[in-house]
Backbone:
């Protein structure tokens, strides 16, 4: 009886702490949702997540756009960048992973270790050299600097993801395909890629979300407001000299979360399966 009595206070304390942590974690999201229905003068300096008088004018202003640019243009710009990023990441990183997982060549382990080591290299270290290169090529203020590197397998995380998954696929399938006369390309495209669908979906989800939310890259390379993606377009709602429409900015932030949420909900079961199986070793 004494053990049961002592366990009750611990259980209550554990649930109280869990609820408090949940409130702390969810408060910013609740405040963001509530702020999208507040007037701009009610948002600044207020920690109350709920509006006194809910309004929908913020969403109307967000849909209409800003600076003469409709909101659909910002969504389309983000969609173009994110979609091409997903295509580039899946194609290039899966090809690079195939060479590491299936081919035998001198220096393979050293090159793989060097590739993994790039995960420790901050993105900002390469930002200035990359900007100088693209500026000399006249590609600044275009989407090329944001998309082209994705087709060159520069994301070591995704290469590692595909490598680990492909190592879990039996090599007997490759040998059977070779007997039927298949080369490396057919083995990669017809044998491994269909089996690597969970890894493809996982890489696609992460690549889409990271590209959709990217702010620093477009900030450095894009200067024309008509080419702004959504994260960069949000700053247009804040004017240091005149009126800042915080309500429309928050409403636009909420609208920008919808594609990510839908994309994640559509493929979440593949995400769990891909993360679980990518840790297998051949």
Residues:
């Amino acid at each position: 009886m004494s053990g049961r009595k002592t366990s009750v206070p611990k259980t209550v304390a554990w649930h109280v702490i869990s609820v408090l942590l949940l409130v702390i974690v969810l408060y910013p999201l609740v405040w963001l949702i509530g702020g999208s229905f507040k007037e701009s003068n009610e948002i600044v300096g207020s920690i109350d997540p709920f509006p006194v008088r809910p309004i929908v004018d913020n969403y109307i202003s967000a849909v209409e756009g800003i600076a003469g640019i409709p909101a659909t243009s910002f969504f389309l710009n983000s969609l173009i960048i994110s979609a091409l990023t997903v295509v580039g990441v899946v194609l290039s990183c899966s090809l690079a992973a195939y060479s590491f997982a299936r081919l035998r060549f001198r220096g393979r382990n050293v090159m793989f270790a060097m590739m993994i080591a790039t995960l420790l290299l901050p993105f900002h270290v390469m930002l200035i050299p990359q900007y100088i290169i693209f500026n000399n090529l006249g590609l600044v203020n275009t989407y090329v600097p944001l998309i082209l590197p994705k087709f060159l397998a520069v994301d070591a995380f995704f290469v590692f993801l595909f490598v680990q998954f492909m190592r879990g696929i039996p090599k007997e399938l490759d040998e059977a395909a070779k007997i039927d006369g298949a080369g490396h390309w057919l083995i990669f495209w017809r044998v491994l890629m269909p089996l690597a669908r969970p890894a493809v979906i996982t890489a696609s989800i992460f690549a889409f979300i990271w590209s959709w939310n990217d702010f620093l890259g477009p900030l450095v390379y894009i200067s024309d407001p008509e080419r702004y993606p959504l994260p960069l377009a949000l700053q247009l709602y804040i004017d240091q000299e005149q009126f800042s429409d915080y309500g429309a900015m928050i409403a636009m932030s909420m609208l920008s979360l919808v594609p990510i949420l839908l994309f994640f909900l559509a493929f979440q079961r593949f995400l769990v399966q891909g993360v679980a199986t990518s840790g297998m070793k051949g």
